[in-house]
Design a protein that fits this description.
Helix content is 35%, strand content 15%. It has 336 residues and is of the alpha/beta class.
Length: 336
């Protein structure tokens, strides 16, 4: 059996290290680790490695694949490439998959390719379905709050997607607490309750703990965190300088060299020491730490290799933290 053929041959994938949480008070279960296709799945990336990561993820119990209309370079290419992989390798497993996508940020030129308007959201979902060769997605998100569009219009579009059978569930991402509360109320009134909130969460980005997480728990909404490794900062990658091919080495992107201050590197080094005492890599500890909050249903990892993905999955082998560890991590965490 070849390296590629051994994937999707594992009938024990649901007995793997990846376990599942209910998403809020819904009946939907999500794997604790979800695979994000923001990076490394576009046309400019290694197609063979992308295929291997998706196969490995599924064969090891990761059933949720998170996309957005503008993921990949160029925009839309992550969805297109995922759709091809799905058709050629995973089509018969469609009912074992949770596929999510989003719209809300810039996707195409002109006045109708950005924001929260009904025209943009519905057109974007139609395009996403065509790129992925799907009849429906499992979760569709409003990717951001748009202050220029009435929230009733945005939520009405999401509700209609469910009623039309083009999305099974809907969610919101990066909404401020007050607007999230409005969104939850409108969607519930429409008969299509919000099942999930997606937000940035890591031990270096904890702002959502104050309002977003408590509100989600109050409303019975699940939470899924993105950037749990803070764009790779919460790994051993930057402890000894900036690697040539790392995200921080590029002039573009969300992680810039100037953010990697000596003070931050010192804190990362101390966190790495705590992880070592736990028998984990820093990345594994950072992922495991996210689950110390019971509101967290899943975290989205973005990996560049099967080896990295395997390392991330292994984080689930030790999710227990002592009070002392949580205090030490809390002292070293906070903001970047």
């Amino acid at each position: 059996m070849s390296h590629s053929e051994k994937y999707i041959a594992n009938n024990d994938r649901y007995n793997s290290a990846v376990s599942y949480n209910y998403c809020g008070k819904s009946g939907l279960k999500l794997p604790k680790i979800s695979l994000g296709l923001w990076h490394n799945f576009g046309d400019v990336d290694d197609a063979d490695e992308a295929l291997s990561m998706i196969k490995y993820a599924f064969d090891n119990g990761i059933t949720h694949f998170d996309l957005a209309n503008n993921y990949g370079t160029p925009y839309g290419s992550a969805e297109k490439n995922f759709g091809r992989i799905l058709k050629e390798h995973l089509r018969k497993y469609r009912d074992e998959l949770i596929i999510s996508t989003k719209a809300g940020h810039e996707m195409w030129p002109g006045p109708y390719g950005d924001g929260g308007a009904r025209k943009y959201l519905i057109a974007s979902l139609e395009q996403s379905l065509k790129r992925m060769q799907l009849d429906y997605v499992d979760i569709f998100y409003s990717h951001r709050y748009d202050p220029n569009t009435p929230i009733e219009e945005t939520m009405g579009a999401l509700s209609d997607m469910v009623k039309q059978g083009k999305a099974l569930y809907v969610g919101i991402s990066k909404y401020p607490e007050d607007k999230a509360r409005e969104a939850y109320q409108i969607l519930r009134k429409n008969g299509t309750p919000c099942v999930i909130y997606q937000g940035k969460y890591s031990l270096l980005s904890r702002e959502i703990e104050q309002e977003v997480l408590p509100l989600a728990a109050e409303q019975g909404v699940g939470f899924i965190g993105f950037s749990p490794l803070a764009q790779g900062v919460l790994s051993d990658k930057y402890l000894n300088g900036i690697p040539e091919n790392s995200r921080a080495a590029h002039s573009y992107g969300f992680l810039q060299q100037k953010q990697l201050t000596p003070e931050l590197i010192e804190r990362i080094g101390k966190l790495n020491s705590i992880a070592a005492l736990r028998g984990q890599t820093l990345a594994q500890m950072a992922l495991a730490w996210c689950f110390h909050r019971k509101e967290v249903s899943s975290v989205i990892v973005g990996t560049s290799s099967v080896k990295q993905l395997q390392d991330n999955i292994d984080a689930l082998k030790n999710l227990q933290f002592s009070d002392e560890e949580l205090w030490q991590i809390g002292e070293l965490g906070g903001r970047m």
